[in-house]
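Fold it.
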Amino acid sequence: MTALFALATSLLWGLADFGGGLLTRRTPALTVVVVSQSVAVVVLGAVVVATGGFAEAGPRLWYAAAAGVVGPVAMLSFYKALALGPMGVVSPLVSLGVAVPVGVGLLLGERPGLLQFAGIGVAVAGVVLAGGPELRGAPVQRQAIWLTLVAAFGFGAVMALIAEASTSVTGLFLALFVQRVANVAVGGAALWVSVRRGGRALPAEGGLAVVAASLPALAFVGLADVAANGTYATAAQLGPVTMAAVLANLYPVVTVLAALVLLRERVRAVQAAGAGLALMGTVLLATG
């Protein structure tokens, strides 16, 4: 069950990233984050009220709040790193954030078997290759590397924090609600600062009409991201965090495959090899 929930996480995160990437081609990234997460806040708020989740409030919610603060910082660092590029280096490197939850699991006493250790190494290598790393050619700015590392650490920290935010299903709904409220608060503040400095909150062409027309897609991105956090927290509670973190971190492979199927993007040989290695690592982790 750990493997099943973790793979569901990678599917949901991969599709959410794919959808978010498409949306940011026309709409400012901060607006995409704030609107998509606001939709998630409304839906989760209704779920929490319906399930009586507020009765589960406790000290663990600080983990959810921390995840909600770290998440937007990581996302903005990631977008800025992508802007500096090259994307073929930035995208695979950010997947190294898996080291954070895996490290937490090892510190807590988890000891994967030999096959699982092998699966971790093979899967991580596959994810890096699936991103299509540029092994030569375009230079990489030092700032892009630092921003990528900040994003990687942030994404990994969110995985580690959300896994500790609850111990029950209704508590998980409340934890995800608190996380999203923090996401909106931090993202909204960043958007306000950006606008004050001359940035745009709406698309240059179409304005509010474009955002309104994109609401179904924005809702999908926000809810898929929420669902992914939920399935990951469940996977981490049911089994070893080391296994859950690595399998959940296969989401770049899903994003690449979505671009291949839906956008007809060409896949390089190194990306195909990476997807194959990621699949092999998944099998080793699941059977080890």
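The chain is about 75% helix and 0% strand.
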